[in-house]
Structure formats: C-alpha cells, structure tokens
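Model: Ready when you are.
Researcher: Fold this.
Model:
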Amino acid sequence: MNMLSGSPGMKAVERAVEKAILDEFREIESLGGVLAAVENRYQRSQIQNAAHRYEQQIYDGTRPIVGLNRYRNGADEMPEIELARTPRAKQKLQVERLKRFKKRNAEKSKRALDKLGAVVERGENSFPALLEAVEVCSLGQIASRLQEIVGRFRPMV
C-alpha cells in the first residue's frame, strides 16, 4: 500500500510528470510523428542531452554519489558493528536437514537436473524446468549442473 497516494505532494509530482510526458508527445507530433522523429534523430539527441545533464550534475556536485563526488568525513568514527554468529548446533541442524533432503529426493533430483540440463542445452525457456528442480534439488545442486553446461560467470574487467 502506498501511504503517499492521494497526498498533495504526490498529486503535484503526478501532474508534473504527466505534463512532461504530454509535452514530449506534442514535440514528437510537431516533428511529424515517431518515424520522422527517428529520422531526425530526435530521440537520440534527447538521450544524449539527458546523459550530459546527468554527468554535469555529478561533476558540479548537485547530484551527490557517495564514493565518486562525496566522501565520508575522516573525523567521523566508524560505528561498532557486532557480528552475528550462528550457533554450532543450528549449523549442524541445517547441514543434517540438507543431507536428509538430498537423500529423500535423490532420484527425483537426478531426473529434474537432467531435464533442466537438457532444456538449457537446447536453448529453450529454462524457467519451468527450474521451478520443478527447486522442489527437489538444493541451490548448490542446481548451480553445479548449470555451471557444467554453461560454465562459470566471469565478469569482464
């Protein structure tokens, strides 16, 4: 539920956004429609102008981005953060639950993983097979099978 819906401030924002959208539509219409605007590179120029404004705001400081143009004051004290540790008994319980889950679903998980692998290899929509697999497989089992097929993600640097 949006607690701000219907508030005077949100109404003003809605009116401003609606006006800006209608102004944009009128501008495109005055150029002769969407096709003519594309031919005149109107949308491209608007995107470039918006990107330029965004960069200017970053560099003149009106749009603060922490770590890029705003930094923590060195005099500030770092807050003390207490680490949350899971008790050993709870860790053991979870490991045992996972072992029982894998044992109980061993045959079903093999079929589900084989089906998921086949779908991924064919390049089809893997979501339905993935939904079936999560019912009987652990996250680790699913991730391992997918890594066997498509490899491990390596971000481009």
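Researcher: Now this one.
Model:
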Amino acid sequence: MNALPGRLLPACFISLCFSTSAISADSCERVVEKLQTWYNSTPTGCGSDPAVDCSGLLMRGTHRAPNGEYDVWNPSPNSQQSGGVSMSWMRSDKIGYEDPGLKANNGILFTPRQFVDAPQKKLDVFCAYPIDAWTDFRSERGCGDYSGSPEVEKSCQALGIKDLAGWKRQYDALGGAANRQARHQRQCAFSMTGDFSRTARRDAFAQFIEARQSIADTQEGRQVQTELRVVAWKQGEDVPVAAFFYSDAQGKRDAVKNQFDYYQRTGNWVPVVNMKFPANATQKARFACEAGAQHRDLPRPVKTSAQACRSYIDKAEWIQRDDPFLGKGIWSLSVTPTDCGRKIKDDQTDAMYAELVRKYADDPRWSGAGYGGGMRRQLVCHMALVDKGRPVRDKDVFNLEPARPDVSHQASLQQGCNPYPAARYP
C-alpha cells in the first residue's frame, strides 16, 4: 500500500535506502536535453507505430489530492473507474498551447514509449482528440459517446474520416466559435485501440496531428490543450515519469512536493523542470533547470560528463540481405555513426536513436507491416557488445533490420545484436 502524502518514512529511507538509485539517475540538465530532443523530433510515425511513441511531450497537468488519497502519478479515482487517464501532447511543429489546461500550473512529463525499458510500464494511448473533449463524460475510457448530448458521438474512423478535409467538415458542422464548448464535447476521437493494426493507429495519429495543426492559429488552438486518453494503469505501477514540471511559482512548490513524494514511494529520483509554454503557434516551449527547484532533502544524481554530439549519425542507406531466421532479401538500414556518436556513453543512446528515427523512420522499409519494434534495441546493442575482443561500436557500419523483434537487452547481447522471432529459435 502506498504511504500517504505528509506521512514521512524513516530517515534511512531518504539518506541510504535508495541512494544507489538516486545517484545513478539522470541529472536535471540531462533530462532537459532529452525533453528538448523529443519536443523537436517531428516524424509522422515511429516505424509502424504512432508518432507519440517516439516524439513530442506526453504530459499530465496535476493537482495534489486535498486529502492525500492518491499520488499525482497514479490514476485518480475517476480515472480508475473509467479506465482512462487524460493527458495532453505537445510538439514543436505547431502543436502547442499556453498552459497545461484545467487551471493546472504543474504536472508530469512522461518518457515516450519507444524509450521505455522494463520494468517500467509502457503507456498505451487509447484515442486522441485535437482539442479538450470533456472525456470525463464520455464512454469507452473517455473515447466514445458524450453523455450530455442526445446524439451518439462516434470515432473519426467510424464516421469515415480519412483525411484533414474530412475532419474539418465534421468539426465545422458542429458550430462556429460561439459553440466552441459544444464542438469540443461532440468532436470525434481518432481511435487507437487494439482493434486497429499498428499502421492504422500510426495513420490515425498522423491525422490527429494534421487536425491540431489546422487550428494552431485560432484562439481555441492557442488556449486549449490537446487531449489523449491513456489506458489507466494500476495503482503503484512503475510508469515512466521523466520529470515533474511547473509553469509558475505556485506550481514550483507543488512540483517539488511531488518530487519528494515520488522519491519516498519509489526510490527513484527524477528532476523538477521549469517549462515555459508557447503563447502562440510560432513560439516554442522552453525547458530549464532553475536554482532551488530540486527538493533540498533529496540526494543529487551524479552529473554526466558526456557532451551531446552535434550529430550522431553520419549517413545510412537501405540494403537487402539474407538472414537464416528472417528469410531472404530482408531490408536492413546500414548505419554509419559519426566519430562522436561512436564514443557516447549510455546516457546518450536515446538521443542517438531519436536522430535515427527523425531521419529514417518514415521510410516504408522501416514502417511496413513487418516492423518488429526492435530497432532501438539493436542500436543500443551495437554500442554495448564486445565481440572477440573488439567493440562492435567500432565496426564501419551497423546493420539494423526493422523486422527484428524487441527483446531484452540481455537477450539482444546473447544473440549478437541480431534478435529473431522466438518461434524461429533453433
């Protein structure tokens, strides 16, 4: 059972019990680098998966529970009941808003799905709305019918919407600016449930992006956040909290309290980050580590000495190769890292992978139906494996196959960075 806010644990818990976890955590500065990389990365998809899985900022504006009945990183009682958690999503390509929404001044930033390793839980986006959709009053985890209207609200797919023009016709038919609230309540959701294929979910999220960008210059686009419904997780599950953020002085106080509570409950140190929201469609969000923003009673992580590379990937080209387990003529991305990229430490592999995604993931040879999800794992393995006394990172090129599955780091090392489907194991 989780301890309640304000109920302190023994002194050893703070100073000793989780000191290794805290010391090895990313510094605030390193997390800000990651946030900036995710925010600036603008692919239309992550291989066969939606762009939210490897780019942008998935966030949740939070208010501390007045009686401490639940922690802000856990689903609220309403979310537990509905099975969905409301979040918003922001990216540098005209997907922004001036505050976290719902009168919040602080919240949580989550790590994109493709950068999450076990035992942390990968979050599942159930549907996406270009603008806040009053999901507390909707069925199907917040992705279905709005209870306050006599009509039955359906998903965008069920309405036959396949492009931006179709979405605009449906949205504009709900009324003009005077009926803004009704339009939000009755808009369709871009469904991303398991009923659809991975590529169908990817394409639906790409349509969500276009829809949001089409209203970026309007008053509602500047003032009102996007809304994604994420499948609710169990209380106490290890979800991928990247940082707690704040947007003003009051928010800073609450964010620091949340950071302290989170360390108490989990033993994980994550930073508190100042986030400046864009005031209009041409501005960009900004992130900073401000003095005095980390709880003074928590140990600080060791700062990494590694410097980010200007570029991690020198070049890459698609080739076809035969593989004893995958078959003949398998597409492989032959990657040549930069000299700087070959020398990075573990804390920069996410940035290296993000550059690879940004430059090459939109290619159909990466994002086709056979995508196995293991591109990041293969890249990380090439940076870590030593084969016959020679670091694999020193090879002229890294050959990465999109068809290979996502396996554990240990399994990838054991298979020489070439994981293959379990059904084909010898």
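Researcher: Key takeaway?
Model: Confidence is low (pLDDT under 50) at residues 1-24.
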